[in-house]
Task: inverse folding
């Protein structure tokens, strides 16, 4: 109420972060782990999009594909080739897992671009879980597949013996930094873009700046469309690279 | 009123909502649910289906190419057969033409010979008749000449005419004319 009074007073009010608030979908109250929130809604919409494109879109199983089937096949081929190129033939077992990550991120990012939408991938909790999932899977897989030999990932045999211990320390630090960079990159990109759009939109309240503001929002939106795809792509390709390290730890 | 305002301000999150740890369990729970659902949709339905479609398409393309190759071979064979048939037909036609020509020539020769014979026969006949006509014409000329001479003599010197003398004179003249 105090805020409203302030806004009516004519001052500029920016709430660029309000769009990221997690709130219950029905009624109000504390957010328990089982509460149906806007997170639930937009994740469910992501599932709906996956179903629409990959189940309904391909339901005719046409040899000569329809448009939606073409897009589904294109997405399939894109990720399949990525996994095959980076991890090799033995990485193809994990293709559904990587495809799941890619589709969830790409659809969440694009759904986040719908005006008034909630962007699930802008939350560090979500991306951290995704990144930790990748990190733990890759680490466990590396030890299961290669045993202690997985540690040779940190022992750069191409370098001179004297600097190998130093390199090993650096490699270990970079290895444990992976999930952090992996998750913050995605969440940071999504959050920053959406916040900037909101800030520009806030300037539209001033008549003199509003044309520039609308133009800036449009430009940012175009950039965000790019970023949405690129970040999903980057997350997926890094997952493939980490998976390759687990399957073939020798440099 | 005052508490309400405070709550509203708290909900409006002065900092980053991303760092509001009270919402983490909620987000993590729904994320896990979502990922599991997407994973099962993809691995059970979507990906096998797309893989099958792609494999089928690859198979169709391969089959079509093989079929096209086969058809091409057939076309080449057919062309050869056609060429063979054409050559055979040409030889046959030449043979038939030669035979026909020989046949026609034989018939023609026969006809010509026959016609020649007929022409010769007709010519002989005609010559005989011409000769006959000539003879009778000469005879008639003699008769006319004799009659004319007798008439002329009778006109010039009536009663003196001797038929025998006039005939001899006319015959002598006619012999001279011949």
Result:
């Amino acid at each position: 109420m105090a805020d409203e009074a302030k806004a009516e007073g004519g001052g500029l009010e920016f709430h660029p972060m309000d769009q990221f608030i997690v709130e219950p979908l029905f009624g109000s109250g504390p957010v328990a782990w089982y509460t149906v929130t806007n997170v639930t809604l937009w994740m469910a919409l992501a599932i709906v999009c996956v179903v629409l494109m990959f189940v309904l879109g391909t339901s005719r199983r046409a040899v000569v594909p329809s448009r939606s089937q073409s897009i589904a096949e294109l997405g399939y081929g894109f990720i399949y080739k990525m996994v095959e190129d980076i991890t090799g033939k033995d990485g193809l077992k994990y293709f559904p897992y990587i495809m799941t990550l890619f589709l969830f991120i790409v659809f969440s990012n694009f759904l986040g671009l719908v005006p008034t939408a909630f962007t699930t991938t802008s939350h560090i909790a979500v991306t951290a879980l995704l990144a930790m999932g990748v990190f733990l899977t890759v680490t466990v897989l590396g030890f299961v597949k290669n045993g202690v030999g997985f540690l040779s990932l940190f022992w750069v045999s191409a370098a001179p013996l004297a600097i190998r211990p130093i390199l090993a320390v650096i490699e270990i630090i970079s290895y444990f930094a992976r999930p952090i960079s992996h998750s913050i990159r995605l969440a940071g990109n999504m959050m920053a873009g959406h916040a900037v759009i909101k800030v520009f939109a806030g300037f539209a309240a001033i008549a003199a700046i509003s044309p520039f503001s609308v133009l800036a929002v449009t430009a940012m939106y175009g950039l965000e469309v790019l970023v949405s795809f690129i970040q999903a792509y980057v997350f997926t390709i890094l997952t493939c690279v980490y998976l390759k390290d687990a399957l073939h730890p020798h440099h | 009123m005052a508490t309400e305002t405070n709550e509203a301000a708290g909900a409006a999150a002065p900092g980053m909502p991303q760092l509001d740890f009270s919402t983490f369990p909620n987000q993590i729970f729904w994320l896990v649910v979502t990922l599991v659902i997407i994973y099962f949709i993809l691995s059970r339905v979507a990906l096998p289906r797309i893989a099958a479609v792609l494999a089928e398409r690859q198979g169709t393309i391969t089959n079509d190419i093989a079929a096209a190759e086969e058809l091409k071979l057939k076309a080449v064979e057919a062309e050869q057969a056609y060429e063979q048939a054409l050559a055979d037909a040409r030889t046959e036609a030449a043979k038939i033409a030669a035979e026909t020509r020989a046949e026609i020539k034989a018939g023609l020769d026969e006809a010509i010979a026959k016609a020649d014979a007929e022409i010769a026969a007709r010519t002989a006949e005609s010559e005989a008749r011409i000769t006959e006509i000539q003879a009778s014409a000469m005879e008639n000329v003699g008769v006319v000449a004799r009659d004319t001479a007798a008439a002329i003599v009778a006109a010039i010197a009536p009663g003196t005419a001797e038929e025998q003398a006039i005939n001899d004179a006319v015959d002598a003249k006619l012999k001279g004319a011949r």
Residues 1-13 of chain B have pLDDT under 50 and may be disordered. Chain B touches chain A through 46 residues (CB under 8 Å). Chain B has three helices and no strands. Helices of chain B lie at 2-11, 24-156, 163-177.
